[in-house]
Amino acid sequence: MGDKHVVRFEPVGIEIEVDEDQTVLRAAAEQGIMLMHGCKEGQCSACKSFVLDGEDIELDRYSTFALPDYELEEGYTLLCRAHPYEDLTIELLNYDADMIRSGLPIQEATAEVSSNEPVTHDMRHLVLRLKEPTQLKFFPGQYVDFHVPGTDLTRSFSMANTTTKDGGRLEFVIRVYPGGLFSQYLDQQLAVGDDVTLTGPFGVFTLRDAPDARLVFLGGGAGMAPILSLLRSMAERGIDRPAVYYYGARRRRDLCFDTELRELADRLPRFSYVPALSEPEPGDGWEGETGLITDVVARHESGLAGADAYVCGPPPMVEAALPLLEQLGVAQKRIFYDKFTTTGDAGTPLSTGAGPAPAGQRDARMRQVPDDDHTRTQRSEACVHRRGGRGQGIPRLDGPPVQLLRAAEAQADPLRGRDGRGPAGPQALPQSGLAVRVLRRPRRLPAGLDRLEGLGFRPAGTGPVPRLGR
Ligand SMILES: Cc1cc2nc3c(=O)[nH]c(=O)nc-3n(C[C@H](O)[C@H](O)[C@H](O)COP(=O)(O)OP(=O)(O)OC[C@H]3O[C@@H](n4cnc5c(N)ncnc54)[C@H](O)[C@@H]3O)c2cc1C
Ligand code: FES
After folding, report:
1. Considering every ligand atom, which ligand is closest to the CA of 143?
2. Over the stretch 276-326, which tens digit does the pLDDT of each residue have?
3. Ligand 1 atom 40: the closest Cα is on which residue?
4. What is the number of the ligand 1 atom nearest to the C-alpha of 40?
5. How many domains does the chain have?
6. Which pTM does this prediction carry?
7. Which of 14, 185, 188, 355 is the most buried (most CB within 10 A)?
8. How many other C-beta atoms are found inside a 10 Å radius of the C-beta of residue 115?
9. Which ligand has its closest atom nearest to the C-alpha of 312?
10. 271 and 309, same structural domain?
């Protein structure tokens, strides 16, 4: 446990305490605050926020596609990677006012495998029964983190069912990757009766209450799981909103839950299921829709103004769907999605359950997630302004803010010891017996001004900046 600091979220005015050892996102989740997030691994940018006040933040490793350096410099941060070392005020770029206080308690649970069957040639249908605790409350569409046996790693998988009230049941649809750390273990070792441990629930891919809005679901691959959960919950709760589910697969052998989805259409009279194959082969005998799922949606839909859209699947599919849905008239803030980012390193075989991924793998992965600017449910006006105006109204410093340290502190600065890319390391100034640590972001003056003024740093535009002399 480290020191705790107060983190305030604007414009919602919520304050939480965050231990230095925790990320802001994790601390918020533990305190029932549902912040926007996706991968929790610094890859998807769903949790990107703006630091209004405070600058002493340490980031665990993240993708520079999710948070490019220029955005970091401007004051953006990733809440799933950010450890605070002082009190902070954070502006949430994306939040859902209806959901933000509705977080469910995060629990660690042990569950036993009830069944583990292939549902397509490369996806498995895993059913668990909770042992301890025997119930885990979650909202349909949420996910849990599975602990990979023999490692300290986790992998995220979405529930396909709706509740654990029926005997502690949890159901998943999991894609098996060649070399996938957890999925190979699932495919080749995990047997009925074995235990798994998991933590959750997480995620904000949940059905928003908007009785008059038409629903458009768009899924691909294992994105089936949370969408199935949402549709099952609609059927259970008698939510008969006009709804359509476009599901994309390559070939007929990639389709799953076909019978159940067609039956759901009987239970929900205003629901229709539109599977489409992008690479059907003659032997498939396919007479349904063909083409990329986004092309199929474009062919079927002429205007979606007023609709709510839910998109889930591999990142390229999600990225293709977002602009299309906007073009068709879905409001940005009514597009909800989970991007199934992969955790392991592309093309690098990982051992199954035999220790953490070798050093360097995460580095390689970190540059593979495309930047994405669609992570929004509700964006405050202030932020839109800031994105255009780049921190207008916030005083800046002409020189980089620095914090004085004793030279000895510069050698061993344990709070900066995380494995991520932190601020530039402290530099010793040997003749003075001092060192400076360049803080990451020149932004608000008050916090650092008292210690900076003496060094000649001034607010932008207030005169020449003397250099730090020895
Ligand atoms: C919120 C959320 C919910 C999810 N829910 C589900 C779900 O319900 N079902 C499901 O199947 N998945 C889901 N995922 C995705 C899943 O967590 C990842 O695919 C995970 O990496 C699989 O773990 P693994 O150990 O099997 O494979 P990993 O060891 O993580 O490796 C995955 C495979 O992908 C390859 N790979 C990694 N990165 C890349 C890349 N950038 N390009 C190409 N190949 C790459 C690796 O070489 C490896 O073969 C979810 C992800 C998120 C963020
Ligand atoms: S949740 Fe933070 S980058 Fe994905």
Report:
1. 1
2. 999 999 999 999 999 999 999 999 999 999 999 999 999 999 999 999 999
3. 346
4. 53
5. 4
6. 0.76
7. 185
8. 12
9. 1
10. yes
